[in-house]
Amino acid sequence: MNRLISDTSILWLLPIIFMIHDFEEIIPIPGWVQRNKEQIYNKIPSFAKARVEKMSSLTGSQFSAAVGVLFVLFSAAAFLAYEYHFYLLYMVLSLGLFLHAFFHIGVSLFLRRWTPGVATSVLLLLPYGVLSIDYFNRNDLFVFPDILYFSLIVILLFMPFLQFLHFIGRKLARSEHQ
């Protein structure tokens, strides 16, 4: 792939693309989950129902609080990669975001409907993921087979972290209402 975009832009697009994607989720997700909860329950396996229940009780401010913490983390990763050539956090987050796109696409295909986050997953997260993987390869930061192993590690570590962020979001929103 030839350089469609500068290396600096690739690094700094991480927090920008993250936020654009999360705006697509923040705005509609609380109402969307409430409106579609019954249809979702009828299609998903029983082990996933508790997760949908948690999502349906999540308010916009709770979700926004978690997104805000993640935005700081994504911005710090871009800064560390650009300024200090410390790429590990950047690689973890950019690969996590890339894989997150497949989650949105998979859920939309499974439910056979639009879901919050799927449009930016297809239009932004997938192309950006390809650009960032190309960046890793061009700069000898990562070789291709390692990306597959690293992606598995990202999935295993990122999921509990996301749960923790939603927990923080619930705590912050609760303290806001007291």
Q: Could you characterize what this model shows?
A:
- It holds the Pfam family HXXEE.
- With 178 residues, the chain is mostly helical.
- It has one domain (7-176).
- Helices cover 84% and strands 0% of the residues.
- The protein contains seven helices and no strands.
- The protein has helices at 7-26, 29-43, 46-57, 60-84, 88-111, 118-138, 144-176.
- Helix 2 (29-43) runs antiparallel to helix 3 and helix 4 (60-84) packs across helix 7.
- The radius of gyration is 17 Å and the shape is globular.
- The chain starts with 6 loop residues before the first helix and ends with a helix.
- The model has no long low-confidence stretch (mean pLDDT 83).
Which terms would index this structure?
HXXEE; 84% helix; membrane; 178 residues; transmembrane helix; mainly alpha; HXXEE domain-containing protein
Tell the overall outline: globular
Q: How far is the first residue's CA from the last residue's CA?
A: 53 Å
Radius of gyration: 17 Å
- Total strand count, please? 0
Compute the number of structural domains.
1
Runs with pLDDT <50, length 5+?
A: none
Structural class: mainly alpha
Fraction of residues in β-strands:
under 5%
